[in-house]
């Protein structure tokens, strides 16, 4: 299976080692996912948004092109091709202010172009998914907020944005969310076990 990973963290994928002030648990998860996918015989395609220098800000010119079902940014065009080729998509990022970081939001804004990633046949009607090869979407998030608080007080905003407001709106429903809450306060043993579990999970994707 061809798996596309969209990774969003300022430290990039290089921050997977446990080095103080240079580490990211999101990057450690990325390394575990990649190992698991490779051991399962899957083909991995990584979009590392910060390493790519992706600009998440939509300019006036880009918005005008978006409304005409066009794309100006060569990097965005490349992302669109890779999305269209993917059989499974994985989003991986930390939760900041109860939502995704700016680069992931910009990825949705700029890459998910009507006429390319989805169609809108008629106003007030459901969108139509144009990612024809897609079989599933996984979301992995890392947050300091306790999981129960995020769910019951804040109402799981990330799934409302990425799942309900994006993929389900496009008519795609095979979605799974794996949340890693409060990992900064866990022991090394607990964090390591979570990484090992993640590797096994994606080895059997």
Automatic annotation (TrEMBL):
One of its GO terms (cellular component) is cytosol. Pfam families: Flavodoxin_2. Residues 1-200 form the Flavodoxin-like fold domain. GO terms for molecular function: NAD(P)H dehydrogenase (quinone) activity. Signal peptide: none annotated. Keywords: Oxidoreductase. It comes from the Bacteria. Gene3D superfamilies: 3.40.50.360. InterPro entries: Flavodoxin_fold (IPR003680), Flavoprotein-like_sf (IPR029039), NAD(P)H_dehydrogenase_qn (IPR051545). PANTHER family: NAD P H OXIDOREDUCTASE-RELATED, NAD(P)H DEHYDROGENASE [QUINONE] 1 ISOFORM 1. Belongs to the NAD(P)H dehydrogenase (quinone) family. This is NAD(P)H dehydrogenase. The lineage of its organism: Bacteria, Bacillati, Bacillota, Bacilli, Bacillales.
